[in-house]
């Protein structure tokens, strides 16, 4: 009822909403609709011939054993990146939040990587881990450890997970730090006086009170691992060796942009869209119940 | 005339907007947009060639624009065509040839352009292995060859010396290569040999040299229904040799595409099979004595090897709803200039790409380029040493970039011991054929 008091003009609320609606329409609904249209058509690269093929593109994608492998790779990759970046960011935030000398210098340094473009970050990692030109890569080989991520699935996967997580740690760190600072000192002090140790204080007070932040970051990190790690993988491994580090989003790019298979690529985008919508819905439905919003 | 007036009006408008009015001399010029995919320093050298043309006459102005790597340039050209805004000329890498040819009305074949504009272009002036790659089945030139390269071997003479090998007698056959690699390893060289562009150097070239088909239907020239032939025992044996050498530590897999290129000039690897275009970088960076040699062959498969095939790119003429006859004429003038032997020879000598015309090759010889630069003649000689057969004309396969990737992926799995050479190539054929069938389906009629 209060709303009516604020907006006398009937058109004004719509007008104020319009920019947001326009952005959604132009940058989400329109491309998504195009992807849907493309996913049921077969088209040559130049768009000269196109025919309706129904669900054939989906059939081809889902019956491709390599696609199922890519799904598995994506799960391993995303879970690892999410867990690793959330875990280490939380640890670092707790440490940086304690009373230590030069705390703000640590904080600045930890936030720094976020300012790097994914491709730049990947190139930095390459200069460290490349077996021929990387400092650490060469050192490992000189020490007799056969390090070559170009021909070792496990090493390649480890490297892209590390690089992708490292990039996201800063983002998580900022939010955790803010979350930590919002926890009332008095509660922690009271627990201290009652004789609770640091670990106990963390698990019974800090962690539950951080849960809204953790939940938010969980959603963001999963979306990050799914969609925004393309640059890292592209610059480091190109999805190789074999298909060991090819994630769903990398394959969408590969099939659509490099291989000119617009139908197949669009079908994959549609599948990916469904997966992420489902994941987010699940997170909101089940994980959020456990979240404690003060 | 309408168009000329339109152009004059727009030029005048531009001149006004830019704030100067004395641009009368620009009014008569026909503008040609030219998109290319060569990064520096090659891109700059290419733009010098274009400038040479612009300065040589006053009717046509060619505007070169760098559009990113070859695949990115291709993507940009396709997107522009879809938007009705294609550039007049686009540089397209050799593996995009089949895609361009199947583009039908999106491109204007060069032979047609030249005859329509009465410019004439002598196809026979071009080196057959170059011409073949860009010709239709009945031998008509579809694109203008420009920067072509081929695969050759570069080797480190100092490392050869150290291993007790004759630095002036590079290995000519694969058994000799294997032998040399083992000796280099025994002498303490950590990377005796490597290769870049894995599919191009180890399958496309190896097939051509031994007159073995890479794919059926004359490597795809015969039609869209081609299937891959690389799981033939000959290729399996070749891949097995590479795998064995790699296991022994006598060969290093340097990564996809041209990732291995840097391993030779840095002195890391003693032998590399790479694009002849790598020469410029080696001249600049290598701090050791090196030599260039033709690719090795398998003596049990062929007594003397055939010509190798090309890589690199060609210039394609694109169509657009707004294109005028004058513009096509301007493109033809540009192409005629590029086909001149002196332009071709200069480009070859400046860059390390091969001469694409026979006269250009002769001209470089006459100027003493090969006496001053020993080994620089190897690529052109290897390209011209035999008459082309249907296995050495090149490849005409749809979505070849994707097929190249598939072969790289399967090779990587085999190098890791996850599958045998036979399984790798069977998988490559199976997956590659799916790609070819999809291309056939999308481009039929």
TrEMBL record, chain A:
Membrane topology: Multi-pass membrane protein
Pfam families: BPD_transp_1 (PF00528)
CDD domains: TM_PBP2
Primary localisation category: membrane
Annotated ABC transmembrane type-1 domain residues: 71-283
Gene3D superfamilies xrefs: MetI-like (1.10.3720.10)
Protein location: Cell inner membrane; Cell membrane
GO CC, any one term: plasma membrane
Transmembrane segments: 12-33, 75-96, 108-128, 209-227, 267-287
GO biological process, one term: transmembrane transport
Summary of the function given for this chain in its UniProt record: Part of the ABC transporter complex UgpBAEC involved in sn-glycerol-3-phosphate (G3P) import. Probably responsible for the translocation of the substrate across the membrane.
Subunit and partners: The complex is composed of two ATP-binding proteins (UgpC), two transmembrane proteins (UgpA and UgpE) and a solute-binding protein (UgpB).
Protein's UniProt name: sn-glycerol-3-phosphate transport system permease protein UgpA
TrEMBL record, chain B:
Main location: periplasm
Sorted UniProt keywords: Signal, Transport
Signal peptide limits: 1-26
GO cellular component: a single term: periplasmic space
Subunit organization: The complex is composed of two ATP-binding proteins (UgpC), two transmembrane proteins (UgpA and UgpE) and a solute-binding protein (UgpB).
Localization annotation: Periplasm
Natural source organism: Azospirillum brasilense
The protein's name in its UniProt record: sn-glycerol-3-phosphate-binding periplasmic protein UgpB
Entry similarity comment: Belongs to the bacterial solute-binding protein 1 family.
Pfam families per the UniProt record, alphabetical: SBP_bac_8
InterPro entries linked: Bact_solute-bd_prot1, SBP
Record-linked PANTHER family: ARABINOSE-BINDING PROTEIN-RELATED (PTHR43649), SN-GLYCEROL-3-PHOSPHATE-BINDING PERIPLASMIC PROTEIN UGPB (PTHR43649:SF31)
Function: Part of the ABC transporter complex UgpBAEC involved in sn-glycerol-3-phosphate (G3P) import. Binds G3P.
């Amino acid at each position: 009822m209060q709303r009516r008091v604020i907006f006398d003009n009937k058109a004004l609320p719509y007008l104020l909403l319009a920019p947001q609606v326009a952005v959604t329409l132009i940058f989400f609904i329109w491309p998504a609709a195009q992807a849907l249209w493309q996913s049921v058509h077969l088209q040559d690269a130049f768009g000269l011939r196109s025919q309706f093929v129904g669900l054939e593109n989906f059939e081809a994608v889902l019956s491709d054993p390599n696609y199922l492998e890519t799904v598995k790779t994506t799960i391993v990759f995303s879970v690892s990146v999410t867990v690793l970046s959330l875990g280490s960011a939380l640890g670092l935030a707790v440490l940086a939040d304690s009373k230590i000398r030069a705390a703000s210098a640590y904080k600045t340094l930890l936030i720094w990587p976020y300012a790097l473009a994914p491709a730049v970050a990947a190139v930095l990692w390459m200069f460290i881990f490349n077996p021929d030109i990387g400092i650490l890569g060469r050192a490992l080989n000189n020490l007799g450890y056969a390090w070559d991520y170009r021909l070792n699935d496990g090493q390649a996967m480890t490297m892209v997970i590390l690089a992708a997580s490292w990039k996201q740690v800063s983002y998580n760190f900022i939010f955790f730090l803010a979350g930590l600072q919002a926890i009332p000192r008095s509660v922690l002090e009271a627990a201290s006086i009652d004789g609770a140790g640091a670990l106990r204080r963390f698990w019974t007070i800090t962690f539950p009170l951080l849960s809204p932040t953790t939940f938010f970051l969980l959603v963001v990190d999963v979306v990050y691992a799914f969609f925004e790690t393309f640059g890292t993988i592209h610059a480091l491994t190109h999805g190789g060796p074999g298909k060991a580090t090819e994630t769903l989003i990398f394959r969408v790019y590969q099939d659509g942009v490099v291989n000119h298979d617009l139908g197949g690529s669009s079908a994959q985008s549609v599948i990916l869209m469904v997966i992420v919508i489902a994941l987010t819905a699940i997170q909101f439905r089940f994980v959020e119940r456990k979240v404690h919003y003060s | 005339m309408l168009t000329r007036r339109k152009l004059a009006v727009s030029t005048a408008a531009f001149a006004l907007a830019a704030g100067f009015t004395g641009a009368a001399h620009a009014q008569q010029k026909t503008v040609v947009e030219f998109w290319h995919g060569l990064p520096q320093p090659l891109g700059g050298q290419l733009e010098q060639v274009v400038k040479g043309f612009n300065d040589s006459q006053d009717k046509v102005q060619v505007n070169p624009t760098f559009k990113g790597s070859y695949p990115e340039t291709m993507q940009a050209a396709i997107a522009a065509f879809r938007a009705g805004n294609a550039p007049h000329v686009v540089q397209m890498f050799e593996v995009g040839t089949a895609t361009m040819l199947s583009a039908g009305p999106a491109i204007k074949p060069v032979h047609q352009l030249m005859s329509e504009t009465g410019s004439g272009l002598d196809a026979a002036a071009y080196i057959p292995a170059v011409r073949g790659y860009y010709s239709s089945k009945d031998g008509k030139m579809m694109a203008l060859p420009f920067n072509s390269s081929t695969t050759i071997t570069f080797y480190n003479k100092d490392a050869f010396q150290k291993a007790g090998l004759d630095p002036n007698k590079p290995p000519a056959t694969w058994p000799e290569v294997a032998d040399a690699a083992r000796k280099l390893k025994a002498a303490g060289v950590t990377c005796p040999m490597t290769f870049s562009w894995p599919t191009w150097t180890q399958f496309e070239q190896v097939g051509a040299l031994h007159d073995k088909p890479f794919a059926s239907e004359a490597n795809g020239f015969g039609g869209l229904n081609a299937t891959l032939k690389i799981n033939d025992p000959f290729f399996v044996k070749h891949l097995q040799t590479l795998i064995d050498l790699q296991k022994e530590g006598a060969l290093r897999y340097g990564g996809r595409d041209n990732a291995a290129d840097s391993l030779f000039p840095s002195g890391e690897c003693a032998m590399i099979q790479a694009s002849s275009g790598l020469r410029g970088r080696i001249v600049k960076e290598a701090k050791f004595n090196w030599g260039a040699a033709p690719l090795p062959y398998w003596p049990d498969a062929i007594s003397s090897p055939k010509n190798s095939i090309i890589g690199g790119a060609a210039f394609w003429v694109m169509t657009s709803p707004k294109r005028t006859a004058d513009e096509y004429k301007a493109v033809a003038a540009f192409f005629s200039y590029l086909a001149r032997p002196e332009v071709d020879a200069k480009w070859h000598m400046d860059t390390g790409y091969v001469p694409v015309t026979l006269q250009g090759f002769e001209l470089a010889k006459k100027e003493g380029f090969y006496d001053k630069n020993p080994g620089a003649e190897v690529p052109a000689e290897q390209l011209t040493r035999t008459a082309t057969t249907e296995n050495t004309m090149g490849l005409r396969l749809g979505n070849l970039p994707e097929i190249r990737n598939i072969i790289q992926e399967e090779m990587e799995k085999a190098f890791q011991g996850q599958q045998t050479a036979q399984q790798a190539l069977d998988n490559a054929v199976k997956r590659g054929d799916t790609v070819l069938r999809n291309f056939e389906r999308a481009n039929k009629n």
